[in-house]
Amino acid sequence: MTALVERVRTLPGWARSALIATGLVLALSITVTLTGQTQLASSGTSQAAVGLGLPILFAALGGLWSERAGIINIGLEGMMVLGTWGAAWAGYYGGPWAAMLGGLVFGGLGGLVHAVATITFHVNHIVSGVAVTLLGTGLTKYLATLVFAPLSQNPRQSPRIDGFTEFSVPGISEGLAAVEAQQRVFVSDLAGLLSGLVTGLTPIVVLGIVLVPVSYWALWRTAFGLRLRSTGESPVAAESLGVHVVAHRYVAVVTSGGLAGLGGAALVLNSAQLGYLENQVGGRGYIGLAAMIFGNWRPAGLLTGSALFGYVDGLQLRAGGEAVHALLYTATLVAVAGAVLWAIRRMWTAAAVALGAGVLVYTVYWTIESVPSEFASYAPQLVTLIVLAAASQRLRPPAWLGEPYRRGEGS
């Protein structure tokens, strides 16, 4: 058994990720069978998870670009807020494609402010990020009152804008729906989860998914990406080799703001909203940052973190406290499986902690019949915190992240 575990560890990253995903689906399938909570693996929940996780994904990608260049960006929240206003304003006059462009441009402007403050004037990154968030929030309130109030008679929201026409992948979506309807253990659950990924799509959803491998290719498979990442690992060494550190950092932070702005546009173009609404970002910029940290500053990892938040959020919105309660059973299975694997590898402390966590979660599951709605609504944030805490031991941020740098220090 130990040899099998060690062999799995030698597999490529994508293969290990596929095995972990299969294990999670199996745990969900067992939970569905034993609890009858079919919403845990339904296509509706999966589709809701895509819509709710998309803004988080854009924000996380924005954080990835900025922090790989050594610039902490907690201003993602403010850049998303700017993106919501820009998307609603442009979308009102030019349609959904213009809304995407408006979100990109306004978010990029927020990123430019952060870049000027941190790179040119060497302002503390945290202070600058907070300032950008405050600036974005205040500016959008003023602009909404100035521009939207005469149109919608409400200074806190814009008129309704046109959204994208949804589409599904022909053939695949119908086939998955047919398999899901058969209610077969594991197979139907897997089909339900996959169905949400090919049904009710829009161009901005496709863009978000495509940007994950594109970001990986740009940052890890190109000379430009190598130079950009070197500015986050050791700008002094990068400069000594001829890399223009300031220029690469500017590109990274402005790109970060643009991606966060697209996250704001994703909120505006959500079929349930289709417009700007004050406070609609609701902390998603910070959650995107958490998803990026959970993903260890890697595209595939932040995709997993964004999907996790979107899934839990979609589940509690669609099925409420009873479904979240059933999810505790899934968490118990995952904790026990982790304890077994760590015990096989003779990592006794980790195994004991995982087993203890599993017992604690199962005790909560056994003693209550449903998670109160007041707690269920905060389940996504709680899950994010727990996962971050569990993953904190393996994190490796860029070496120069948040450190001040002035051009010429390496000479």
From TrEMBL:
Its main location: membrane. The keyword Mitochondrion does not apply. GO terms for molecular function: transmembrane transporter activity. The chain crosses the membrane at residues 14-36, 48-65, 71-90, 97-120, 126-151, 193-219, 250-269, 323-344, 351-368. It is a multi-pass membrane protein. It holds the Pfam family BPD_transp_2. Keywords: Cell membrane, Membrane, Transmembrane, Transmembrane helix. It is found in: Cell membrane. InterPro entries: ABC_transp_permease (IPR001851). One of its GO terms (cellular component) is plasma membrane. PANTHER family: GUANOSINE ABC TRANSPORTER PERMEASE PROTEIN NUPQ (PTHR43370:SF1), SUGAR ABC TRANSPORTER INTEGRAL MEMBRANE PROTEIN-RELATED (PTHR43370). This is Nucleoside ABC transporter membrane protein.
